[in-house]
Design brief:
This protein has 273 residues and is α+β, with helices and mostly antiparallel strands. The protein is 40% helix and 14% strand. The protein is elongated.
Amino acid sequence: MSFEASPIPKNEESRLLAVEKTGVLDIVNEEIYNVYCHLSRQITKCPDSWANVIDKYRQYNFVLDGEDINDQIKEERRTSPRPLTFCQYALNSKSPLIANDLTKHKIFKNHPSVLKIDGPRFYAAFPLINSEGYILGSLCVRDFRVRRLSKNIINLMIGLSKKLSHQLDIQTEQRQLSIERITRVMETLDEEITNISLSETISILKCLSNGLLSKKDQKKLLDLDLIDKNFNLTKKSKELKNLLKLDAAVLKRIKMPALKTTEIDELFKGLDK
């Protein structure tokens, strides 16, 4: 017999939307999540830990931690085809999925990695469940020897996975609020300033959110009557700031380095404070 893929969850369509909303797919930002894998290894004494979300076709490991795992190995393990993963089976239950001996487990005993002499022998996955009840992925550990987790350790891991799930919830909410706020700001600027260009919009937002201004930005703002010759905010820009509900102090920028205008996220940082 060969390893078989897990049945697709009944709420898969909605679950996939929830995964996409997290914003973690294809984003390597491990410093935010390293603590969860580090603690997982400390709690379980397993050599390897990772956390993932699973989309329609693949498992994406947004953080990995383990003995002798370097950046190259991390990138090799970053994604896996969904039908070949252990963690696909963690999508079907909100309870932990624990295989004390993979070679004897009815689901995993025929997995290609388990059939290897030096393959994994223990695996545990703790579902990452968002506030809407969707299982996004899991927080996992594995070992290369057969083992068993105590009830206390299992409870500690359940608690840790809940904390990671909550963090993903908060980031999802903040991301959605940021998108909504940016959209609202762009629409307001378009209404208030005739024929405004994208580059002018970026300059205005940098100005009103206390961002650093290049000489090119300064010229645009002078032309739009949003700063005066002393680089202070004009009455027009103060009214615009109030309209946009941005809490920015009086601007006085004379010699400032140029910024990369393509990094939209950086330009909108001040809007989220």
